[in-house]
Automatic annotation (TrEMBL):
Acetyl-CoA binds at residue 146. It comes from Anoxybacillus kestanbolensis. Substrate binds at residue 70. SUPFAM superfamilies: Trimeric LpxA-like enzymes (SSF51161). NCBIfam families: NeuD_NnaD (TIGR03570). Residues 4-82 form the PglD N-terminal domain. This is Acetyltransferase. Keywords: Repeat, Transferase.
Amino acid sequence: MDPIVVIGEGGHSKVVQDLISSSECYQIIAILDDKYEEMVEKNGILYGPISSVHDVLARDGCAKIVIAIGNNHVRARIAQRVRIDDEKFATLIHPSAVISPSACIGSGTVIMPNCVVNAAAKIGSHVIINTGAIIEHDNYVGDYAHISPNVTLTGNVTIEEGAHIGASATVIPGIKVGKWSIVGAGSVVIRDIPDFKKAVGCPTRLLD
Ligand SMILES: CC(=O)SCCNC(=O)CCNC(=O)[C@H](O)C(C)(C)COP(=O)(O)OP(=O)(O)OC[C@H]1O[C@@H](n2cnc3c(N)ncnc32)[C@H](O)[C@@H]1OP(=O)(O)O
């Protein structure tokens, strides 16, 4: 198994750690979170602040990294702050997920149990495709987006960078959700949503 460093130790990290165990490809060598002030070792795993990531990589040059933080803004900020090459970030896919051979998935992205990613879907870097989400054919999902549990993105949907689609929302074909926008849980999106907006309801209305 290859070594991996997990950044973040909150709720989303617990699920990512389970995903790492079930994929049987990686072994966690370090968990980094700013609640730690200095590096300590417990049961063979290093715990330390996020700034120690370069020290950990210096000890084990083959190690991959995943930023296991649910907040899109924080995940993006850390990805930019650590200044580590894209190829060092692992793409983690749960064994129960069904991924089309023609789908393209970026580095640092995690795909949780029971997701489906269909033909020609293109998913960026540091994206969360959460439990049971369906990403249909020809979708584009930008970097740092979060597609929450049980979301359905139908065909030809575009989700721009950093957007968050709340749990169980549905987006109808051909719709675009703008960058860093938020779609409420359970919403049905039938019109494009501009950048930096919140939209809720069925069909969605924009919040101020
Ligand atoms: C494993 C995991 O946990 S993954 C995480 C998944 N997370 C989610 O799915 C959370 C998604 N977040 C939401 O749905 C939130 O309600 C948000 C972000 C859309 C809105 O949050 P806020 O900005 O705090 O809005 P607030 O609660 O003040 O509500 C504003 C208005 O929108 C309405 N509203 C809020 N959320 C929704 C919703 N999901 N559907 C319909 N209406 C909604 C409120 O009733 C209120 O309406 P009013 O002004 O007519 O009274």
